[in-house]
Design a protein that fits this description.
about 140 residues; alpha+beta; Aminopeptidase; five-stranded mixed β-sheet; globular; GNAT family N-acetyltransferase; acyltransferase; Acyl_CoA_acyltransferase
Amino acid sequence: MIRKFEESDLESCARILMSVYNNETWECFWSFEKAKEYLKEIIDFKNFIGFTLLIDNEVKGAILCREKTWWNNNEIFVEEMFVSPEQQGNGYGTALLNTVEGYIKERGLAGFTLTTNRYSQAPGFYHKNGFCDGEHVLFMYKVI
C-alpha cells in the first residue's frame, strides 16, 4: 500500500535510508540523527509532496519530492527515494514513481527531475521507468 507521507514516518524512513546507503555501493556513513535531520529538511520544503510504501503496516520505503516553480510549467523534483534492501526488486520503487506520476498528471505538471549516482544501479532503474539522461543539464560540484 502506498499513502501520503506522514511526519510519523520520519524515524522509520531514516532507518531505511541508512540501510540503503550505508554500504560499499553508495559509500555513505549516515548516523540515525543525521538521516533524520536530512529527511526533516526535505519534508519541511514549502511545496513538499511525499508518499510512503507500507507492507504489513510497516514503512518499507518512500519517495520524497517537492514541486518546483519553472517558467513554463512546474515540475516535481525527486529529492529522495528508497526502498528497504530486502524489498528491492519487487516493483515497489516503480510503484512509488507511478504514484508521483499520477500526482503530476492530476495537476497538469511538466514531469519529473532528479539526480542520482551514475556509478550505481539507480540509472538502470530510472531508465527502465522511462527516464532519460538530461543532455541539457550538468550536475557540478566543487570540493573545498
